[in-house]
Amino acid sequence: MYSPTPDDWQDANRARWDERVPIHVASDFYDLEAFRAGKDALRPFEIAEVGDVTGKTLLHLQCHIGLDTLSWSRHGAAQVVGLDFSEPAVETARGLAESLDLGPDRAAFVTADVYDAPTAVPDSSYDIVYTGTGALNWLPDIGRWAETAASLVAPGGFLYLAEFHPLTDTLDDGTGSVVTHDYFNREAWVDETPGTYADFDAPTVHNRSVEWQHPVGEVVTALAAAGLRIEFLHEHDATLFPRFGTLERGTDGHYRFPSDRPRIPLMYSLKATRPKPDQA
């Protein structure tokens, strides 16, 4: 249900994520055995849109257990840094890095709130600041996030965001065809759903979550106001899990509506650069 932002929103969300780390580690969704053996955690469109990361530094905000972060290292990034507010998630990420023989000079992980990233990460700026899926909905202030993320982009570097499309949060869970929620609502969404996207039936105790919806226009405007130049905004007709009961899994492992249904955007991605001083 919608409500004013509760005072304990961060503590509630952290408890929820801390509890789900071991569930995710053991899940087929993340499949850590396959990841250690070389499976890429990144989506093909992300790899294509980010481009060659060889020799570059990359900061991953809200990295969870670090699979995406470490995948960028495998793609050639000189150094990757992952940040997350969940200590169990960060410890898991560090363990994964060690199992892949990636020392802290190649892959480092820090525990901190995303808004505190500038004082928590090892360096003041990065060639690429990356944010993966399912991140922005946990943040109450998208303008503050944009300012924080933009401050960490080196001149000539860029921010890359891949996220679930907020339009999907307005639709009914069963069919994804009926608008049931307000796209422009700014209040917090407080929920008590047990389990997790990686295991819907997992027994869980800390089920309270506090989330926010951020329309695409709000995100783009916030990044532009923070001094970044929007290079592209792409919308995608596929998503990563069966968000609606009518979605069908394709051969690429992504979920789409049946071919006889009109398509809507299920995810979006954008790239925003920080101009060099002589380009500003």
From TrEMBL:
Keywords recorded for this protein, A-Z: Methyltransferase, Transferase
PANTHER family xref list: TRANS-ACONITATE 2-METHYLTRANSFERASE (PTHR43861:SF1), TRANS-ACONITATE 2-METHYLTRANSFERASE-RELATED (PTHR43861)
Organism the protein comes from: Streptomyces microflavus
Keyword Transferase: yes
GO molecular function: methyltransferase activity
Annotated protein name in UniProt: Class I SAM-dependent methyltransferase
GO BP field: antibiotic biosynthetic process; methylation
EC number(s) from the headed UniProt entry: 2.1.1.-
Methyltransferase domain location: 59-157
